[in-house]
Amino acid sequence: MRIDLHTHSTASDGTDTPTELVRNAAAAGLDVVALTDHDTVGGHAEARAALPEGLTLVTGAELSCRLDGVSLHMLAYLFDPDETELARERELVRDDRVPRARAMVGKLRELGVPITWEQVARIAGDGAVGRPHLATAMVELGVIGSVSDAFTTEWLANDGRAYAEKHELDPFDAIRLVKAAGGVAVFAHPLAVKRGTCVPESAIAELAAAGLDGIEVDHMDHDAATRTRLRGLAADLGLLTTGSSDYHGSRKTCRLGDCTTDPEIYGEITRRATGAFPVPGAGG
Predict the structure, then answer these.
(1) Which residues pair with 57 in a beta bridge?
(2) Residue 6: phi, psi to the nearest 5?
(3) Alpha carbon of 91 to those of 81, 157, 201: distances in Å?
């Protein structure tokens, strides 16, 4: 089985619609794909309806969190999307995305970038606006050569000159909420240092003690040494280890299935989940 547990659609900051995403996942030879848009489940219904035969959909979301001033992302799998408290927190984060993006547009303009909110809004469309949309605008303007070039301290990295904070969950609260909604919590790309400051390994241990289920190890932003280090840490802490592409369509260079999750780990995730269940494709 080929299992990719981290992808994005136009419901957040990917370039594939949910329909295109599941069809492209099937074409890429995947057996299981998780749709984990940022702080939203808005793409799930369309993905279910379009799901090709032979492909299984795992519903999820990538939750925006912050610990001691450091941003981090929590992948939440197979939770009940209607659970009130978690739904309310996702809404708070989404509502804060627009003023945060407007603030970053203002900072970029102060730095001499001729970006406009209208341009960013056009790129984001109906998706949850985020930094990749601003980065795409910068590429359009010729300020940078690629979206990844925006995620540096010069521009939009977590400690970058044009970065602005938004409402984010405390990760301990995120774990509690995900578990209360019957879901499984996995720390996304925990040591992706090229994105900015990362939380220390001691914090990962504290999150594990609070109920964290796993960490994303095989990811494009983790080199071989980092993956080995994370596997050792996971073994010490009793955490599951996942692998994923973090696919964003044409907005990033990674392809569906570039990194995958072991079928036994996937089986354990589905066994732990009680809020929702994987959806087998029926040829949508």
Answers:
(1) 33, 279
(2) -160, 100
(3) 12, 24, 30
Structure tokens at 187: 């720390």
| pTM, 2 dp | 0.90
Report, as ranges of residue numbers, the positions in the chain whose pLDDT lies below 70. 283-284
CB 107 within 8 A of CB 119: no
First to last CA, the chain: 21
Degrees to nearest 5, angle at CA 222 with 31 and 70: 110
What is the C-alpha separation between 228 and 273, in angstroms, rounded? Answer: 27
- Determine the Cα–Cα distance for residues 70 and 158; give it in Å rounded to an integer: 8
C-alpha distances in angstroms, 225 versus 22, 76, 97, 229?
Answer: 32, 26, 34, 6
Contact by Cβ (8 Å): 233, 204: yes
Calculate the dihedral angle through the C-alpha atoms of 190, 191, 192, 196, rounding to the nearest 10 degrees: 100
Q: 196, exposed or middle or buried, with CB in 10 Å at 0-12, 13-18, 19+?
A: middle
Tokens of 167: 């409402």
